[in-house]
Amino acid sequence: MNKHPKSVEHTNLSENTTKEYESLVQQGDEHIERLKTCTKLIWDALTIISQKASVLHMETVKEAADHLHIMELDLRRELFKVRLKKSILANKMKQTQA
User: Fold this and answer.
1) DSSP 6
2) Coil, strand, or helix at residue 1?
3) Residue 5, SS3 per DSSP
4) Does 85 score more than 80 pLDDT?
5) What percentage of the chain exceeds 90 in pLDDT?
6) Which residue has the higher pLDDT, 3 or 24?
7) How confident is the model over 55-75, as pLDDT tens digits?
8) d(CA 89, CA 94)
9) What pLDDT shows up at residue 76?
10) In this structure, are residues 89 and 17 in contact, taking their beta carbons and an 8 Å threshold?
11) What separation in angstroms does the CA of 74 have from each of 59, 69, 89?
């Protein structure tokens, strides 16, 4: 038999869901800040390249820029995953409230 009444189970589920949602919001905010930083670094690197390309080792420049771009794509993918989880959880929360 179930030790807890349904109202207690529902409250625990609701609290856990709310905490999970809040965690996803924080993760999303962190990914957005990291993405902003990465994008700024890319633009700054492009500015430096346009000003000093003639005195820089081009293979190294291209490799470094490529790594920044890959990092940006990874951050965008992670942000998408967090937003997807958050959307699914928001739907779940609406269903339990109805």
Assistant:
1) H
2) coil
3) coil
4) yes
5) 73
6) 24
7) 999 999 999 999 999 999 999
8) 9
9) 98
10) yes
11) 22, 9, 23
CA distance 61 to 69: 12
Read off the tokens for 57: 């080792």
Contacts 24+ apart (CB under 8 A), 2-9: none
Say how far residue 43 (Cα) sits from the centre of its chain.
20
Q: Is 53 exposed, middle or buried (0-12, 13-18, 19+ CB in 10 A)?
A: exposed
Do the Cβ atoms of 25 and 86 come closer than 8 Å? yes
Q: Which sign does the torsion angle of CA 95, 23, 85, 35 carry? A: positive
pLDDT tens column, 6-54: 555 556 768 888 899 999 999 999 999 999 999 999 999 999 999 999 9
**56's tokens:** 């820089």
